[in-house]
Amino acid sequence: MVLFLSIPQSKKTIDPPLETETEIDPTPVQPGNDLFIHPQCLEFLGPWNKANSDTFECSDYDLSIVKQNDNNVSASYGNRQSIHYSYPAKSGSASTGRDFRLLEVEIRSGGSGAFSSIVFLERGKVDKNKYTVWLRTPSGDRCNDGYKTVSEVSPRGFVFKSAATPFRLINPEDTTDWRNWRNANAMMEYTGDKIEQPPVLNDWLPYDDVTNSASACVGWIVRKYDYETGFEIVGVELSEQIEIGVDGDSLDSCINGWLTTQANEESHFKIGDWTGRLRQLTGTCGVASLVN
């Protein structure tokens, strides 16, 4: 089914932020096939790329490395590098000939990371090697705001979700890249300085107090993007079976145990309901409750 998106009036970047790999039919794209964009043209979505241009040109990449199956396109190259994208929706205007695509993108740089983002592109009407970036999400690595998928599309926008660790679930509105923050803060400490810490629930820090490993997926943060008003958090989803450590009397174990009990009750929570439940978490796993 083809879903049509309304044309956004301004370019915007979303501030966000379970491991599966889509099987691709190993049939190379043949010259002359209408490939919307070569996967390697999407390298700019990787977290190491600091370019933030609204437009770019892409050509001269090797088509023989591109594989596609229905709405899935991928390319493997270099030293275990690959880029895969899929079309959750196709859009365009027959009257103007404008060609839009909303893409789910995953970039693997050769290591363990799998960096996921969503981008809304327009391909040039005359020069099909030129593209306009209407909006993009920052990339996330696996359970750290990765595995992004679009679940719903309408003329006004779309709903998408990103994988979440225990830390992200109890801080659903936080969008900090905590791995980079920790590294930058450690470097600043050598000069006797510190970076201001972003606010978090009860000052419980990721890694130190709460599980935040890129392999510790326990649910999803669900967001909605409206082309006129921007994005908002819709709610959270919990995995049906949460398999994380719940042993000992540590704060981390207490939080993991609490998440497990919530998943046993329900899997989908509106953000208002979830915020109320987080107040229960504070009473259950606060310092005073652990001492008692």
Structure description:
The protein has 292 residues and is of the alpha+beta class. The chain has a domain at 1-140. Helix content is 18%, strand content 31%. The chain has five helices and 14 strands. The chain has helices at 166-170, 178-189, 251-265, 271-285, 287-291, and strands at 12-13, 55-57, 66-69, 72-77, 81-93, 98-108, 115-123, 130-136, 140-141, 149-154, 157-164, 219-226, 230-238, 268-270. Strands 1, 2, 3, 4, 5, 6, 7, 8 and 9 form a nine-stranded mixed β-sheet that branches. A hairpin with a 3-residue loop joins strand 4 (72-77) and strand 5. The protein is globular and about 60 Å long. It starts with 11 loop residues before the first strand and ends with a helix. The model is unreliable at 1-10, 12-26 and 288-292 (pLDDT under 50).
Measured distance between first and last alpha carbons = 57 Å
Largest sheet: 9 strands, mixed
Mean pLDDT: 85
Count of alpha/pi helices: 5
Structural category is: alpha+beta
Name the features.
single chain, 292 residues, 14 strands, globular, disordered N terminus, disordered C terminus
In short:
With 292 residues, the protein is an alpha+beta fold. It contains five helices and 14 strands.
Write the layout of secondary structure elements.
Blueprint lengths: L11 E2 L41 E3 L8 E4 L2 E6 L3 E13 L4 E11 L6 E9 L6 E7 L3 E2 L7 E6 L2 E8 L1 H5 L7 H12 L29 E8 L3 E9 L12 H15 L2 E3 H15 L1 H5 L1
Parallel strand pairs: 1-8
Antiparallel strand pairs: 2-8, 3-4, 4-5, 5-6, 6-7, 7-8, 7-9, 10-11, 11-12, 12-13, 13-14
